[in-house]
Amino acid sequence: MTVMITGGAGFIGSHICVELMHAGRQVVIYDNFANSHPEVINRIRRITGTAPDVVKGDVRDVNTLISTLSAHGCSAVIHVAGLKSVADSVSKSAEYYDCNVVGTLRLAQAMQQTGVRNIVFSSSATVYGEPDVLPLREDHKLAPVCPYGRTKMQAEELLIDIAHSLSPLNVAMLRYFNPVGSHESGLIGEDPNGVPNNLMPYISRVAIGRLPALNVYGNDYPTPDGTGIRDYGHVVDLAAAHIAALDCVDKQRVLKVNLGTGQGTSVLELVDAFARASGKMIPVTFAPRRPGDIASYYASAELAADVLGWHAKRGIAEMCRDAWNWQRKNPNGYLDQ
Ligand code: NAD
Ligand code: UDP
User: Does 176 participate in catalysis according to the annotation?
Assistant: First the structure.
């Protein structure tokens, strides 16, 4: 049975494809390539030995979704496609609601029309907002502080309502914390357009010499070294969790699970780990706090262990090693064909 993976050409989606294909599943990538490079398909083929089926389409295009789900005999969808920049979600909020909320609704409608019942959805820890208590458990209140987080919360809400409708879907919502690293081959990885917003790709570009220094946004947070703390997780571990979620999505109508390690790491700790993994100096400059940033958050990983039987296997050293391996082998990302 085939799994359709929206956003399958992107950073996380491409790693999910590889894990699915290694597990013997058929996949069809459904992506509009708005934030990905066609070369990724070739790289997936080089890793797995098989070229995945690919449909170039938008998640808001119900007709193309219906024809793809039908033609490929899909039994489930992993819905990864979305826009993910917190800053852009403020300046281009309508675009974010259209892609992330309307796109999720159109996909759910296409699934209802084709009788495909099971969906695993890429949600985000940003749905929680400022934590009342750490680690963050799935029953923590949802109070996102930016439009991006609100689009993810609204997509979750509409999927939950559809799960209880007369034409129900089974829904697993996976709340990612901070996915980083890359496949150990160094053939696929994170390749943001322009100057990276996120910490790990920024550090990688400093290490390879494409950027002069890392701006550390705030060193006066109430954390041991004053810099922000996040729960970084290896993207290959994260990808494996999707297979576990596919295997149990139809046993519970609605599942909401954090995908995190339960460990917090500060900006300066990650810089140190990356310097050790790469043997490169990472110059840092202290800069003011980034608006909207939260001092510290990390996941409770208990529910993922209980319901998915999943836990992260790789630590910070492996995340840095693999992020550096990707950057070193592809200094210009997928442009280095
Ligand atoms: P990415 O941008 O690398 O991948 C997203 C993919 O979706 C891209 O290939 C893009 O071309 C495609 N896409 C975008 N809009 C589309 C549309 N309308 N129709 C079809 N395809 C479309 O991002 P990523 O880091 O791989 O993130 C994947 C998902 O995980 C996103 O939904 C994101 O919100 C979520 N997420 C990411 C992070 C993170 O730190 N990377 C954290 C939490 C949640
Ligand atoms: N960060 C930083 N410099 C950067 C990018 C990020 O100091 O160039 C910090 C940011 O303030 C936060 C942490 O790194 O404390 C993780 O940021 P990222 O954007 O990767 O993830 P998010 O904040 O979305 O969880």
Answer: no
